[in-house]
Amino acid sequence: PVKVCATCGREFQWRRKWAACWDLVRYCSDRCRNDRPTGGR
Hints:
Layout: E1 2-4, E2 11-13, H1 30-34
């Protein structure tokens, strides 16, 4: 399966470490997760 990163827009592939939580994964890396836009505050 492939998803698109919510921050950078890149496609990323399923990884074994995400097997249990693939439905919750939104970012391709820790950097994108930390750089995500804030809620407008």
